[in-house]
Each structure stands twice: as structure tokens, then as C-alpha cells.
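For reference, the entry.
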Amino acid sequence: MNPQVGRDQRQKLIHRIRALMDKTEDNGCTEAEALTAAGMVDKLMQEYDLTFKDVNVDEEMAASSFGARSRRHTLYRGGFHESAQYLCSTVAGYFDCKAFMRKADTSVLIFGEKDDSQSAHQMLAMLALAMDQEWERYRKGEGRSEHGHTIAQLRKSFMLGMAVRLKERVLELKAARSHASRGTALVVVKGQVVTDRFAKYLRDSGIQLQSRRARSFSGSANAINAGKSAGGRVDLGGKKVGGTGQLSIGR
């Protein structure tokens, strides 16, 4: 906080920023009004060198709604489903959350605001369904002519290819949404809240995340390409970020 700002002025400034942050479409403002308010928030926070911690927006509400929620996304034979293995971080990031896999109970933990984390879990589950359906189509069709690879190798190749394409598409949607929001302070603040609270959660829980090493894999190029094509067919449209809308994934 700028030391030249007096205590009374500081409080008035914080109240003003809080009021501006309440000017959202969910609270009845038009998109133009919400973007204008967010721009003013961004300008004020930069001008007076304010951080989210200084503004302390809805701290009590945030404390109650932010948290870690885990769910198992597993294969029928055990182990993490490919949607969890390859897409959990990307999907979590789309909903402004953080995620990691827990080997102890083969679950995915997603940390963020309640509706966002629930939507991320729902999207992972529906992507798993789409991936399984597309794999079965490939296995019973084009995959029957594949030779020189086991079923397990074909599945891994196909699922890897499909996950690569799905990841690209989710990142494209995220970038488009970020561009539409014009990098407003509301988006930045929310991301910082999640990052800060997630770091605290890890410290308090004594969890140390480890990066996974990429392993060499000799699979089927045809199956990988078929998986990429399948990933391009999955319908990712019609979602409203934040958990207030139904996710519709399929054809």
C-alpha cells in the first residue's frame, strides 16, 4: 500500500474498490458496465500499489467457499483414467483452479472456489466418458487393422493423441476467454486468490508436489493420429465457466 495514503483515505479507497468489484453481470450490470468497473479497479490498484491482501475483498466469503475437493477418476482395472493423467491440470486451470493427482487413493484433488472445482471435476468425468466412447469406436473399427501393437499399446497411443488435441482446445478456449475479459483486475485477483490459498493449503498439509518425468513411449502413430482426430470432434461448446451452467460434452 502506498505509504503516502492516509488511513481514512485508505479505507475509503478500499470501500470504493470493493463496490466496483461488485459491479458484475451476475449482480445486474451490463457487460460494458462490468468491464468499465473492472478497468477502474485495475487502475486504482496500480495507482495506489494495492494488492488483494490490502483490499481484502470478501475474505470471510472466500474462506468458506475456497477449498480442496477430491474425486476418483480411475480406470475399471485401477489406476488413473487418461483424462486425469493428461488433462487434470489443464481442465483445472480453465476453471481458475489448481490440481494434482494423489497416488495413495488414485484421486484427483482440485483446489479452488466451490462451483469452479465442482465444474472441473464434472468436465474431467465427461471427458473421460467421451474418450472411452471414442476409443471403443476406434478399437472396433479402424483399430482392428492395426498390427504389431498390443491392445494396451493401441489404447495408450489413442488416448495420448486424443488428450493432446483436447488439451490444445481447452487452452484455446481459456485464451479466448482471457482475451475477452481484457485481463481485467477481477480475473487477476481471482487467480491470485487461488494461487495464494493453494500454496497455503500445501504448506499446512505438508504436501510437496513433484513434477512428473516424461517417459519414452513407442506406440502406434496411426492410433495417435486417430486420437487427435477424435479429440477434435468432442463438443466443448455451450459451457458457462463457474459452475452455473451445465457442461455438454458429446456429439
Notes: Residues 57-62, 238-251 have pLDDT under 50 and may be disordered. The radius of gyration is 22 Å. The beta strands are 66-72, 98-102, 107-113.
